[in-house]
Protein 1
Amino acid sequence: MLSLIIPLTLGLAVIISYLVLEYPRLRQTYRLWSHRSQLPPGPPTLKTGLRKPWLWFLELTQQYGDVVYLQMGPTPTIILGSAQAAWDLLEKRGAIYSSRPRFIMGGELLSNNLRGLMAPYSAFWRRWRKLLHSGFMQRQSEGYRPVQSLESKVLMHELLVEPEGYRRHLERYAASVVVTVTYGRRVEDVRSDVVVKMNAEAMGRLTSVNIPGKYAVERYPALKYVPAVFAPWKAEVLEQRKKDIQMYTGLMDDARKRRAAGTLPDCFAKYLLNEQSSLGMTDLELAYAAGTPFGAGVETSAGSLASFILACVKFGDTFIPQAQAELDRVVGPDRLPTFDDLPSLEYVQAVVSETLRWRPVAVLGGTPHATTADDVYKGMFIPKGSTIIAPLWSIHLNEADFPDPHKFDPERFLKDREYPGTLGHSAFGWGRRICPGLHLGSASVAINIARILWAFNVTPARDEKGQEIDVDIFAYSDGFNSSPLPFRCSITPRSSKHAKVVVKEFAGACEELQRYTAAAGSL
Ligand code: HEM
């Protein structure tokens, strides 16, 4: 008898485990099957392991229309291919389109749900979002403009004295602005700065686990509860979590000490510390919240500016003369443009918008959204729990909105045309998840584009024979954010007078930045 009971019990345990693991998937499969005739159109087979999935998504939206259905593993996935579809769903129906898909490895196990960017639509996310909104809303961000202006003067000087290192200089600028407005300490060298290094490591830990298909737990969420002693992948990710905690709390402790000593300048960390008790947040929640801007704001700002340089090299003849004529008229030859000049620089503003449109860094439209209720759009069924991807590569290169889309043409933004929203492009996303750093990010892009155009001629580099070296406007990096691969170009001052102004304004900026530089040594 006993000899029968043991195999029967084992068999039953296997069946129950299988059902527990498979139940959510079987239930979802049934729901999709029952609505199969109403699902949006989509390809019969999937392409997996693509290094640049946005290229395939563009083909799909060109073939199937603005709303495409993909069955990616157990999760229904919807690709939106036009500004209007993204607006109609992510903005207007934001109440049910603002969650996130589950990121079990990156969001739950590595980050213990403390990274708001990956958090589902929830009370925690709302609290986190409110914090970022208060820290970076328009009025608050205007308070960061002096730092952006000073760092931009440093950037202009770096471009003057070492133009071939332009990419590193753009990264330093973006990192320094974000670290200064977050922790009140600046970045002098992006290669050796300790905060930059620590944050880059944390980003590395996150991206190494956020790889679709790499871990079975993403497909079978119940595996999350297997004790770490039986699951080396889980033990490892929990070890990585400890490193993140150590880093984020270390940075916040440093800010706390400087606040106590009265040396912490106004910054996001100071705001968080001042408001901590009224916000009812733990030290750890606070430390992770302060880490947000670095992850979201550095690559995006630097990558957008790198695309601008690329556009200058490829299309400069068609727009730089007009931009420089406007700058000469409005600003004159004796000083760099300032934030106050921007409203009068209509053409330069169009160059800024076209930069963000032409090569959107957030090629996939940022982190995917997820739906929290069933929905029907133009007769198509969009199931609850769908992952929604609105790739900006499809949306910004949609011929219907932007004819001849790979041409860099600022004039598009000077003509009347219909486009949902107020910006004329969608570079910062939509609705409740719209980029909270959009004022800071767009100000960084705008002031530097205005100043580069004012101070320099950006043209193709020349080879030994004096021939112009062409650039490839499609040579972009893989990854969540996509920016130009290294390319050569020539950045020279427009005249010796322009160069002198850059040197003079840099000297003044160095003095003013001193108080942020001193703090940089505190870690
Ligand atoms: C040119 C610079 C930038 C670009 C192009 C950009 C673009 C984007 C995009 C497309 C999204 C996704 C929005 C959506 O899901 O609908 C996003 C989200 C986000 N951005 Fe930015 N961004 C930039 C700069 C910044 C900066 C400087 C910060 C720092 C405060 C920041 C913080 C965030 C955060 C925290 C989110 C996630 C919001 C959420 O999940 O609720 N971004 N950004």
Note: The pocket of protoporphyrin IX containing FE is lined by residues 117, 129, 132, 136, 292-293, 296-297, 300-301, 304, 361-362, 365-367, 427-430, 433-437, 440-441, 445 (CB under 6 Å).
Protein 2
Amino acid sequence: MTDHPLPLLNLSDFTAGGERCRAFLHALRAASRDVGFFYLTGHGIPGDLQEAVMETARSFFALPDQAKEEVRMVNSPHFRGYTRIGGELTRGQADWREQFDVMREAQVVRCHYGEAPWLRLYGPNQWPSALPRMRELVLDWQDRLTGVTLTLLRAFALALEQDAGVFDESVGEVPFQHLKLIRYPGRDTTLSDQGVGEHKDSGYLTLVLQDDTPGLEVLTDRGWVLATPVPGSFVVNIGELLELASNGYLKATLHRVVTPPAGVTRYSSAFFMGARLDADVPLLDLPGYLAREAKGPSSDPLNPLFHQVGRNVLKGRLRSHVDVANAHYGELEPL
Ligand SMILES: O=C(O)CCC(=O)C(=O)O
Ligand SMILES: [Fe+2]
């Protein structure tokens, strides 16, 4: 385990244009290819909004169990709401964190039995009655993070010498959004130190806001590296859809969160930006010198990747939330 910092990029260099923009795109490509993780500053999200979101997370998780259970995820065929500690699995092992999941507010899609089961991912969020202002704040947060990821996605397109809008069709008017507010309680790590087990994210891009308690670790060719909190920044990482689209030129990197020591609590917000559920992931036509370095997407026979986005997202959700799968998707064969 080393404590070497990850690369740090400033998004305002991209929007400034000219030489600053060219240097940004160069650094973006290097960071995404070599590590798949970087810090982002200059993103335009005000510090007081970041703090308000963390404060909302602290208030939500401090509610009595009964108020959190009122919005528990197992109520929702759309995988939204509260998951208690140990209620989520990563690679079959329970994670030591509690979390609140939000996606885009949507209408339920009426569908016929046997039709694409991922259509059931669309639907409303659940909100705790005890925190009446949470909905507006969190949806605003989700929209602002969407804006940052859309800008970044255009930067990725340019860095790979594509048309800036090459991902537009797969993203649509509003991309698939998924946000988690997370609490990692400390515990005696002789029991297990799995806050969240090692995994890759499944969307295009992830933005993580962490508080000042370390815990997020990234697998690099130097071993596991701690993403030491950098105040005001987001940690950005590449998800499997970008790896697929770039034929493995960009890397979806394994990462994990280790449980804080007993008596210490860590809070974070993780936002996953994906493609439209009804889209297929585009396969980019890379120029020869980049294509030669594209290794093909890494494939895990135990966790196949699908180009059809909805199928991929539903697979991940069913594996992570077995109680929701049993309650609402019992008729499906395991994926
Ligand atoms: O809490 C964090 O810092 C990261 C969480 C994460 O990797 C995830 O939920 O996919
Ligand atoms: Fe992750």
Note: The longest helix spans residues 134-159.
